[in-house]
Structure formats: C-alpha cells, structure tokens
Amino acid sequence: MTLRLSGFLLTAVFVAAQAFAAPKPTPDAGRIAHLTAKLFEQAHYNHHKLDDALAARFLRKYIEALDYTRMFFRQSDLQEFERYRAMLTSRTLADDASPAFEIFERYEQRVEQAVGWAKEFLKQPPDFSNDEKIQIDRTKAVWPADEAAARELWRLRVKHELLQEHLNKTKPEEAIRLITRRYDRMLRSIREMDADDVGEAYINSLCHAYDPHSDYLGKSELKNFEITMKLSLFGIGAVLKSEDGYTKIVSLVPGGPADMSRQLKVDDRVVAVAQGEDEPVDVVDMKLNKVVEQIRGAKGTKVRLTVIPASAPDSSVRKVVTLIREEIKLTEQEAKAKVIEHGSNGAGPVRKLGVIEVPSFYADTDRDRNADTNAVSTTRHVAMLIEKLQAQRVDGIVLDLRRNGGGLLDEAVALAGLFIKQGPVVQVKDFRGRIQILDDEDPKVAYDGPLLVLTSHLSASASEIFAAAMQDYGRAMVVGDKKTFGKGTVQTMLPMANWAFGDAKAGALKLTTQKFYRIAGGSTQHRGVIPDIILPSIYDSREIGESALDNAMPYDEVSAAVYSRDPVRHQELAELRRRSTERLQKDRDFAYIQDDIARVAQQIKEGYVSLNLAKRQQEKKADENRTDSRKKERKSRNMPEPKLTEIVLHPLPPTASTAAATTKPTAAAKVPRDDSSDTDEDDEDDPKKPSLDPTLQEALSILNDIVVAGGNTSGAKIANTASPAAPETR
To answer: How far apart are CA 230 and CA 222, in angstroms?
Structure first.
C-alpha cells in the first residue's frame, strides 16, 4: 500500500473526539521488513545491501509517506527522527519494525493537534480583506520550524477552505459544518489504521528507497492487484464507498447477484455481514477494505447482508438480503472500440476510422496456462475488436494508449504481434548485463492497414514498449504529448509466503528485476517515447513522469537488435506534420488548450493562491467569462458531430436495475484539487463541447491523411520514423 496522508484526505467518516490507542509493533511487521531487505539485496536489479545511505532514504520516504504535504511534522520532529538513521539497518535486520510505530505515534499526535487547531480557527470569523496567500503544492516545501509556524500553516489552510466555500456561495454555517466533517473524516482515517497498515506503509517506504516502482503488497492489496490483471472477482457485484461510518452502495454491476436479486438499491447502507449461516458481523465504522474482504468470497458461497434500505423512513429499519457469490467480470475495464465516420460532419470525404482504447495490459495468466480460450487478455480482446472493426470496413485504426499505465510485459509483446509479421519487440537486461530479446514468433498478422498509436505523459511501461516497437518498425505513426511517462523497468511479483513459512498474510513484493530497451537500442527510462507528431497537452505544463520521481534508475542504451525496417521517408512525415500544424493553428479547441497550458504553467511558477476575497472574485469572474466565451464560440460553430458507433466485446448481461450501466469504483481516497489548478472544468457540462476530445479528433485527421497518401496499406510508407531518443538501427 502506498500511503499518502495529508490534511486534505477524504477517506473515512465522521467521528467524535475520543481517546485513541496507537497501533503497537507486531512480529509480522519486523519479520516482513527483514525479509524484504534480504530479497532486495538478492533479487533487485541493483542488488544493493541495506546500508546507511539506503537507510537514510528509507527513513525519509516513510516520513514523506505519512506527511506528504509537510504540514504535520515539525523540524524538531525530523531532528528527533534522525536518531533512527543510524539504527534503521540493524533494527530491520533484527526483525524490529518499532521505528515505524514510534514515528507513526508522533504523526497521530500531530494530526490530532492540527485538527484541534482547524476547529479552533473555524470558530473565528475569517478576514478576507488582507493580502495573505497560501502555498498550494507543499510536497517540496520545508516542514514548519516550530509549533507557531505549524499553527500558522493551518490557519491559512482553514482560511483557504472557507474562502473556497464562500466563492461557491455556500452559507457560512454550512461551510463550517462541511469543513468540520472533512477534518473529522481525516482524523477518522488515521485512527482506523491498524498495525498491518502501519507495517505496510513502512515496508513500502523501504521498497521506494530502492526505486519508485518496487512495492510491497499486503494480502488485500495483492488481491486487488490480481483482480486488476484478471478483470474479475468473486463477489456480489456492488460498488461500495464509506460514508458517515456506513458502507454505502454506489452502484450495482448489471447482471451481478446484487442486481439480479432486486433486493438491493443504490444508497442502501450495509450494517452487518454474515458468512453462510454464521452470526452477522457488525461492520458499522469498519474500514471499507475490511468490509469488502467480508463481502467477497469463493464462487457459489452464501453471504448475508443486513442493510438499511435507502427508502427506509428512518435508520432503525433493517433488511437481510441473502446472495450467492458469483464471478463478476469487470468489463468496463476491458479494451473497447468505436467506429467514427470521419468527415461525416461535412469536413470532407467520409471515411470510417476505428478507435481502440486500451486501458491496460491485462491477462488472466492462470486461465491462460490452462489453455482456456475464454481467458481475458488485452491481446485477445484487441484481436476481437480488430475483427469487428474490419467487418465495419474501417480505413484505418487508432490505438489509444493515453491512459494506459502499463501492465504485463508479455501482453505488450503479444499485442505488437498483431501488427507485425515476426521479429524482436523489446530487449530486456538483468543486473548481470545479460540481454534477452523478446520476439513475436507468430507470422500471422491481425491487421496490416494504416495504424496510429496515440500516447500521453500517462502512457507508461508496457504501453511504451508497444509504442516504441511500432515506431522502430515504422509500422505506425506515434502521436501525442511531448513524451510518454518514461518507465523503462520491469517488475517481478514475488509471493513472500515462499520465504515466510507459507504465511499468506505475508503478501508479495513487486520487485524491479530488469530494465527494458527498444529494439533500436535506446531505453525509454526517463526519456519515454517521443511521438512522430507532437500535439499540445495540458500535461506538458506539469512535472509528470519518471524524471519527477525519487530514486528512479538512470537512462542508458544497449546495442540495437536485428530487425527489418522500411527506409525513412522524411518528406512524407514532414508533410503530415505540416498539415497537422496547419489544422492546429485554425482549431479553436487547441487554442483553448494552449491558453490553459500557459495559465497552469504560470500558476505553478507562482506557487501561491491569494486569500484576498476581491482578488479571488476577480479571478473567478475571469474564469467564468472564459468558460462562457468558449461555450458561446462552440455553439456558434453549427458543426454536426461526426457519426459514432460503439463496438462492444460482449453484450450487456441481463439486468434487474438501471441504476448503473457503467460503474466506477469510488472507494479510493481522493484529494480535492484546488480551484487554482482547474482548467475549463465547467466544459464537462457543456452540451456543445465536441463528443470527441480535440487530441483524438486531430489523431483521426492525421490517420485520414495517412489513408489518403498511402491507400489502404500498412501505413509504413508515411509513419516510418524513429524516435529522436532512439539510435539508428545498426
């Protein structure tokens, strides 16, 4: 579990102030920390022992994990924690995790004190007439020097929140109530942390002292990871969240047991859970992940939920619902596609272009090993979608990886194989310097037509492997942000039960064991994949990517692999860039993006937000005017939307509820953004905003140019160029 707790955390529920006992060290935490250190020494790419230098990073990462926004601890606390630096190695190797709990106890004290100050400041009438300001991003700021400095930080924080509510036209008494509950929820989230949570945060900090992508996954986090890869779980098919001490139903998965029972509704509150015929366990005030663990279970088993119906006249009403757990397919997280009739809005000749959105590189490896032809996998799903798109006679395909943070390496290699005949896809190097080339050995090609790969700063790891291979082969045009994320490392999952006497509670390590390289020889580490055509992006104004992470591995290169690649045709690429630039210069939506980039860059440079009401009202009015102006301009275009057809992998299952055709988990903690960093967010409710975002629209126009210039062929004639970050093939 990566733990980032701050004064803006919104994950728990209201709780009255009460005496609280801090979690105490357990043998498990110390034993697992020791085992983690040993496994890192033996299996991590760097094979580095836990020495004094690593211990210093370990200590700092744990402090930052607790106090990410640097508003709770003080300089005196940090000076006191320095005593752990010299003993952290010896204590870890002696199965002693007591520093984690001692530091956490101080953290709890500081949170309790800060919440007390916040409530004190809420009782004082705020003065919005002076020229005070607040630093928004404190992740690199210094910790407050003393108690007086800490109090001042929290006074400004509370004033900022009150000003936010005032600008939102919230009544003063309601604003105080909302903010008070916010801090009560924050305090509750800290009090809910048990010894396992503290130990998990501590061990994760040890992992992150080595590199930012190695992680420790406790039992529940490991289960969640497996669900993410398999896109399925065994349960009742309900999306839950924690609210005011209750586990509340947000939505029901269509066709799942909860939906088909017709007995559960959105906003019902779960107060108890019983396994089979066992006695119910009260889950009021229980952590959400613990409640979820009780509701999930083996397929075919019975679970009984005691709920307060949303329609109940008062909270004394109870209803018991008995359900049989089934496999729940997370189909909303699968690859999906659509056909867009480019030019159908009158902008030119009509051509059918396909878009396949790939959210991650997933696969049910257990079913794959058993040769289950129905096992989910990115490659299998994309192949099915290609077949459906070809049945629609599309002229070209966009593969959208903009929100793809990676996944399974083997899936990236297999997906590349759908678009090339045979050959190397990626090179992998271990700590000894041994290089293994992963090839596509299947000569079959699922699609040989024009192909465009769309990327962003968020495209990472496996998506970078795929995009780089398509670029190096000249198989596809890569289009997107200035570069991708820049993660060029490979992680291996090590179940710690193998070394912990079969203890399933030991969880697993996601350990960096290799680095990967393009077949052209360059690494994607730090540099990412640089598109052939770069489009403006709001992410360009922010520090996003590997280069912004602590303890990231360096960039390096290896020799190029042997592969076949058509000669580069710079003139054709130059023409595509010229046409794209010409369109962008005339496109109002990209003008808005450029304006947003400049505004966000300026806000980041300034680093502070005014707490003066008149100034903020002026800024708010300017934001509203800008939004209104954009809405009016869009409305004046009178351009029909291009025709769009959704392509589904599976028909929707039978449903007894229309509460949620699509569900999104809401149990994760969310940090509210400051309004100073929002850009044109009111456009989300703008009925005249284009149904296709500007970046995708331009990608389709580039693909259309490729189709026009190269015909219904591979597209390699135009898209054949190497990334500026990659050396030429040797």
So the answer is: 12
